[in-house]
Amino acid sequence: MAHWAKLRVHELSAFFALQREKMPHYSTWSWVLGPSVEPGEVEAILGHFFLTATKASAPARASVHLARDGKTLRGTIPLGQTRGVHLLAIYPPSQGVVLAQMRVEEKSNEITHAPILLRQLDLRGVIVTGDAMFAQRAVSLQIVQAHGDYLWTVKDNQEGLREEIEVLFQPHRPRPGTSALPTDFQMARTVEKGHGRLETRTLTTSSLLAGYSTWPELAQVFKVESQRTDALGRTETEVRYGVTSLPAHVASPHRLLA
Question: If you average pLDDT over residues 97-118, what whole number do you get?
Answer without folding.
Answer: 80
